[in-house]
Amino acid sequence: MPEALWQIDALVAAAGGQADARPSDKSVSVSGISIDTRTLGTGDLFVALKDQRDGHEFVSAAFEKGAAAALVSVKYQRQDGDGLLIRVDDVLLALERLGAASRARLSAGARVIAVTGSAGKTTTKEMLRVALEAVAPAHVHASIKSFNNHWGVPLTLARMPAQTRFAVFEIGMNHPGEITPLTKLVKPHVALVTTVEAAHLAAFSSIEDIARAKAEIFQGLSVGGLAVLNRDNAYYGILREAALAMPGVEIVSFGSGQVPDGEGAGSVSLRSAVPERDAGGTQICARFDTRATASDADVAFAIGANGQHMVLNALGVAAVLRAVGVDVASALRVLAGLGPPTGRGTREAIAVDGGTILLIDESYNANPASMAAALRAMSALPRSLYPRRIAVVGDMLELGDEAARLHAGLAAAVMSANIDLVFAAGPNMRHLYTLLSPERQGAWAETSSGLEAALNESLAAGDAVMIKGSNGSRMAPLVDLVRGLGTRAA
């Protein structure tokens, strides 16, 4: 029998609802919280949110799958077979109340971490989750997937067990003002901003405005909280100023250069980062600033990914681990076995006639900074193993009036990474494609599907192919195409 997450009486009170039970309803607790009947488990609370579909359409299905109760609107009409209903005026607001109650019941010694940034949020969150689980097994709670929006954050909070010692929340945004209510709900002790770059520019007048929107995360910090900032980022100053405007907040920074005066004693500097020749990882040596302690604190560890952006993410993780008081060396040790999340730089060797093709799947999403970082990471691939570097890139969306310039600007990254061949999809990627020399032009198409024939014809053993684009560019089918080339193997 799964352990109880919420007692029904406490759940009803926290949600501000009314229990609508029939005499046959025997539920006294719920063991989990679900918004999707496809993943709902026996004993879960089903939350009937309205998104692309209205969750109320699936309440009966939830009970058929074993839900203990359902959080529904007061307007919902009970169906035959429905069990315990918890009726509320507004389901999303009730979920937020439940999340707030979950946060309030944590012990005083628990530590809550919030992560935001233009890129690297999910990867960094996963690094923190795995590292903390290494030193506090069964006491770590973290966002799943990219549950970082107006319903994902309160849902993650509501799912948090009362015994949690470390909680890690990913917080995202597309528009100004979206982070503020979420960080005030989470109330983090530590807030990490991975980087600020040109992403979602269609909703902002400048990258400086994006930085200010990301800085909203500090508004949830308690007095004495820590802001962990990437000092290599061009918008570090804006973030630092915003953090220091909050009462009692201290700054801890990470980056490749010297720790500036006035930074917290837990700030971390990169000493070296050496890509592993063929394992797809990186050996890192870092140093914590120790002005407030007795001795130097160098730490050496490995991560299961390549690229300067991944190294910086790992430094941010190291800074957070020190800030929450765990054994940093032990926690970081497990990162060697953690590769990037699916679609964010995962690597696969595809066996074909004559050898293998290295597939680098970056298809989950893209903005100018993450695209340039993915291209730069290819420059570390040894030519002896992968004689030809191929980039398959799709449009980066939500860039507004800057789209043409930012796509064209990727030409410099293509050349500096010595990419041999580029396949480009989408009207904006044409601005990049036309700047390339003929020998670097693989093919351009209006959509990703238009590249299939040319890509299929071109790829051969010894190629390293990286596929990346915004979600809306639909690059994932091209990843499947490359995987399918494995059938060529003898």
Q: Brief overview, please?
A:
This protein has 490 residues and is an alpha/beta fold. It contains 16 helices and 22 strands.
Q: What can you tell me about this protein's structure?
A:
The chain is of the alpha/beta class. The protein folds into three domains: 6-88, MurE/MurF, N-terminal domain (Udp-n-acetylmuramoylalanyl-d-glutamate--2,6- Diaminopimelate Ligase, Chain: A, domain 1); 106-337, Mur-like, catalytic domain (UDP-N-acetylmuramoyl-L-alanine:D-glutamate ligase, 3-Layer(aba) Sandwich), CATH 3.40.1190; 346-488, Mur ligase, C-terminal domain (Protein-Tyrosine Phosphatase, Chain A), CATH 3.90.190. The protein is 29% helix and 23% strand. The protein has 16 helices and 22 strands. The model has no long low-confidence stretch (mean pLDDT 93).
